[in-house]
Specification:
Structural class of chain A: alpha/beta
Strand content of chain B: 25-35%
Distance between the termini of chain B: 37 Å
Radius of gyration of chain A: 23 Å
Largest sheet of chain A: 6 strands, mixed
Number of strands of chain B: 14
Strand order of the largest sheet of chain A: 6-7-8-3-9-10
Radius of gyration of chain B: 23 Å
Helix content of chain A: 25-40%
Structural class of chain B: alpha/beta
Oligomer: heterodimer
Helix content of chain B: 25-40%
Order of helices and strands of chain A: EEEHEEHEHHHEHEHEEHEHEEHEH
Strand order of the largest sheet of chain B: 6-7-8-3-9-10
Shape of chain B: globular
Number of helices of chain B: 10
Strand content of chain A: 25-35%
Chain lengths: ~325, ~325
């Protein structure tokens, strides 16, 4: 991978706004990303994530505010911005009825990688993807792990300092997925900036920092660890109760309980503290015909973080994305 | 969960389906008890969709048998249709019909009475927070809302067994939680749910699950029991210099695997008693770290361990 084009932040976004008519899709978002960072975008459908990414890719002109990508202004130099980007989505990136080599040639043509540079880069991509000797295989006939590595190879053929990944490993075999993320983390270690857009919390775990976007605004920004530690109002408890249905109902107005939800055979409860739950909840539940057999504190998942950060912020939107 | 042999909601034995040279489903066997949420969990190509299509009676097996809601999927295909509901990945919603019109269409298809239809639709739409969108065109709903409308249509004739093929793929975590809340309330009414997913973290919400890979059953049990069978321990190290920590700890005794996950490392250990020794090594190497703590193995850890074990056995 090449070194980043400019010193300083790889991406700097300052009070970026995009309006469509009376609808504000992106509403004053600011952040900076350093070279070599893996930054995740999380948010519900219609939150403004794709609009933001399209502006950062120079595909959509901001209404106001500024975004510098690899030192270029996305509004003034969209073509220059696009030359510095790679884009990969697990589901749509490759041409299934083209061979491995034809896919590489196609993307090489698209990004202006030719001659000696192309032979060098395509060899690198084939080795990275483990596809040496299978150049003539149709992309549609590759197993998902190889397909995804080939798509990555195509996306970075022109050595972009910034790479966008859209749910890159959804549906991919876990062993191939781990190998893929190892590769992405190695790329980041050489200074490539990686953006990941996902609904998939297992992918979010691999990000150095996460940006939570809701209704066009940034509602959380930090490392997965920071978000886990600072989001919950209290602690997350796992309760084993019999029967589960009435337990859920009884917990809705139990003292010291903020939230309760069924999770498999158990209940996940957000409460003030484990001590207060232990001293109060078993009796509260018993009085309502529910036996509580265990209470223990568990670590919130990133999904818990996501739901808590966005929960209560008017969830009955349901409109078109 | 009750699990008497004669009351299985689903009973699958030796189920096999080939497409040309590919065995998509290979001698699958499992049982699902009434009112259970049973997960078919695995990556693309694991055989999830093929299995569900056979359970729904729309694809004949090459070998083996499946009974669903008391019906043999081959011999009793007609009565099966009224007792189950099958929601494929691309559920047939009519985008230029409204929410209400879609529901009416499916109610007519299954000859559900008008009064029952109305009562059921009202309750299901309220449960999914969609009451105010009944006049909206289906094509104008968000992804999560479309899935909830699909579920409402699939449930309008009170099926005993609900077969769902990756209903939450591409759905954001908030809508996903809503979706699961509805599933839990259904099993409270006695409905049995068989659901497929490639999201391993979602598998933990099932009562029991089958981990599938390449058409074969890797493991089948409750999430808690599956996790208790993972050999050794998993620990997490947070450090501002994770790559160097990785190099230092990879060679330490008792460390079976090191996985870099963002700003943290996940260590596969033979015993959590190794942690103090690992801390000494980091201190000796002058590397900073915030904590080394035991964490629960994830479903992905479990899946990877099961695949490795299966590979060791076959070599």
């Amino acid at each position: 991978m090449s070194a980043p084009a400019a010193r300083g932040p790889s991406v700097a976004v300052d009070r970026l706004v995009k309006r469509f008519g009376s609808f504000t899709a992106v509403d004053g978002i600011s952040f900076r990303v350093d070279p070599g960072e893996i930054m995740g975008f999380l948010g519900p459908n219609g939150a403004g994530k794709s609009t933001l990414i399209r502006m950062l890719c120079g595909l959509l002109r901001p209404t106001s505010g500024r975004a510098l990508v690899a030192g270029r202004d996305v509004a003034r130099e969209p073509e220059a911005v696009r030359e510095h980007l790679g884009y990969m989505s697990q589901r749509f990136s490759l041409y299934g009825d083209l061979s491995v080599l034809e896919n590489l040639r196609f993307f090489g043509g698209l990004y202006g990688v030719d001659g000696r540079e192309f032979s060098e880069r395509s060899r690198w991509a084939l080795e990275m993807a483990g596809l040496v000797g299978r150049e003539a295989t149709l992309a549609s006939q590759l197993a998902s792990g190889w397909k995804q590595r080939l798509a990555l190879g195509c996306a970075v053929l022109h050595r972009p300092p910034i790479l966008f990944l859209d749910e890159p490993t959804s549906g991919v075999d876990p062993i191939a997925r781990r190998a893929f993320w190892e590769l992405i983390q190695q790329m980041a270690a050489t200074g490539v900036t990686i953006f990941v857009s996902t609904h998939y919390m297992d992918e979010a775990e691999y990000c150095h920092r996460l940006a939570l976007i809701h209704r066009g605004r940034l509602v959380g920004l930090g490392t997965p660890e920071e978000l886990r530690q600072t989001t919950l109002r209290g602690v997350l408890l796992e309760l084993a109760c019999e029967p589960v249905g009435p337990a859920l109902e009884a917990l809705q107005d139990a003292p010291g309980v903020f939230d309760a939800a069924v999770f498999g055979d158990t209940l996940h409860v957000v409460a003030v503290s484990e001590e207060s739950a232990r001293s109060g909840l078993p009796a509260w539940l018993a009085a309502r015909g529910v036996r509580c057999t265990s209470i223990r504190t568990i670590e919130p998942s990133l999904e818990d973080v996501f739901v808590q950060r966005l929960g209560g912020r008017d969830l009955q939107e349901g409109g078109a994305a | 969960m009750p699990h008497a042999d004669d009351v299985d909601a689903v009973r699958v034995e030796g189920l096999t389906r080939r497409f040309g040279a590919v065995t998509a489903v290979d001698a699958l066997a499992f049982r699902v008890a009434p009112a259970e949420i049973f997960g078919l969990v695995g990556p693309d190509g694991a055989g999830k969709t093929t299995t569900l299509r056979m359970l729904a009676g729309v694809l004949p097996p090459d070998a083996g048998s499946a009974r669903v809601a008391g019906c043999d999927v081959v011999r009793d295909a007609e009565p099966l249709k009224t007792r189950i509901s099958y929601m494929p990945q691309r559920f047939g919603l009519y985008e230029d019909l409204t929410v209400d019109e879609n529901i009416r269409f499916y109610a007519d298809l299954f000859a559900t009475g008008r009064a029952e239809r109305e009562q059921r639709a009202t309750r299901l739409l309220a449960a999914s927070g969609m009451s105010e969108f009944r006049a909206r065109l289906a094509g104008q709903l968000s992804g999560g809302m479309k899935q909830k409308l699909g579920l409402t249509c699939a449930l309008i004739h009170r099926p005993r067994v609900l077969l769902l093929d990756e209903p939450t793929t591409g759905v954001d975590p908030l809508s996903r939680r809503d979706f699961w809340r509805i599933l839990y309330s259904l099993v409270g009414e006695g409905v049995t749910v068989v659901i497929s997913t490639s999201y391993l973290d979602e598998a933990e919400r099932c009562h029991r699950l089958a981990l599938l890979r390449g058409g074969r059953l890797l493991l089948c049990d409750t999430p808690a029991r599956l996790k208790s069978h993972v050999r050794g321990q998993v620990a997490r190290v947070a450090s501002p210099r994770p790559r160097e920590v990785q190099e230092t700890l990879a060679r330490a005794p008792g460390v079976r695997s090191v996985l870099l996950v963002g700003t943290a490392l996940h260590l596969g250990l033979d015993d959590s008693g190794r942690i103090p020794e690992l801390e000494r090594r980091l201190a000796a190497a002058g590397l900073p770290w915030d904590s080394i703590s035991r964490i629960e193995p994830t479903m992905e850890d479990l899946f990877v361990a099961a695949v490795r074990e299966a590979e060791e056995e076959s070599t």
